[in-house]
Amino acid sequence: MENLLRPLIVIGSSVALTLAVGWATDRLLCKADDRNHGTPLWGLLRRARVPYQLVLCAAMLRGSYDQAQLLQRHQAAVGRALTLVLIGSAAWLAIRIAAAVVETSYSRYARVHRDAARVRRVRTQVELIMRVVSAVVIVVAAASMLLTFPAMRAAGASLLASAGILGIVAGVAAQSTLSNLFAGLQIAFGDMVRIGDTVVVEGEWGTVEEITLTFLTVRTWDERRITMPVSYFTSKPFENWSRRTPQMTGVVYWYLDHSAPVEAMREKLRDILRHCPAWDGRAYGLQVTDTTQNTIEVRALVTAKDSDDIWTVRVTVREQMIAWLASEHPYALPRVNTSDAPLAPNRIPSPDRATLRKAYEFPRTGRG
User: Fold this and answer.
1) pLDDT tens readout for residues 190-232
2) In this predicted model, what pLDDT tens digit does every residue of 97-128 receive, in sequence order?
3) Pair 305, 243: CB distance under 8 Å
4) Would you say the C-alpha torsion 13, 16, 22, 27 has a positive or negative sign?
5) DSSP symbols for 84-130
6) If DSSP codes are grouped into helix, strand and coil, which group holds residue 304?
7) What are the structural domains, with CATH classification, of the chain?
8) CA–CA gap between residue 258 and residue 331 (Å, rounded)
């Protein structure tokens, strides 16, 4: 009877104590979160309650398992299994705590600083730092788990002796991976591209959605995702439309007839922009930039606060200007003269061929 009660008491008390301590800790974190609405730290720490309880339970079972006198033939194997669970749950807990602290620091920084570019830069750095921390913790935990096996400890000396050769071989084999890793760190702390930046890569326009240590994801305007190695951004040129400031200048072109009313178009452009909420009011202009034997090229410059608004301003100006020209000045639209076309106001019509022939004929007399 004692052989059955002892294990039940040891295991039951460990589990019960773990649940009690975990519940009490969670209640304390809830109260701290309610009292401190300005910081998300306590709410984020609540996400670590599962690994926290695993650490407590594994630690108590590992310390009291010898007193349970259960499965004595497999005592070493059970003890090693509990040690592995303890190491894994401790690594999980460390990652959750680090994520909570880093996320809290970023939230405070984002509230204090209103500069969107600086906030995106810090966000990119925070994301990559967390990935590095997670990778380091996982590697250390995996190495600690392997060292719990006697065979691994015995092989440690030979592994250290051959570490130099293995490092060279691994470096050559993983050259592209290592280049992407260092490129990711360079992007994070070199402020080349950040999460939320508007970029143009390989002729595709989109927004940087995710940056990892090895790849970068760009979400295009039509909601496609382009995944590229981060080394691309350190070895090839690309356009970053929000490098320092998201403000942009857009261009709209029209190809019109030589009789187009340019001055009236300038006034119409001003009226269109005044009623366009996406225009930031910084600047605008309209000029004739080129001419051919059939048309003239008219260019309008408009400004907006970011890439999304500049697109809205451009399409609005283009559509409304074309509609205005078609209704008020149809003669200004390009055409192929296969028949009579409406003339511009105050324009003297050119004489036709019959009139010219009649004007140049000599008056006939009655002689021979």
Assistant:
1) 667 778 888 888 888 888 888 777 778 888 878 888 888 877 7
2) 888 888 888 787 777 776 676 677 777 777 77
3) no
4) negative
5) HHHHHHHHHHHHHHHHHHHHHHHHHHHHH---HHHHHHHHHHHHHHH
6) strand
7) 2-112 (no CATH), 248-332 (3.30.70.100)
8) 9
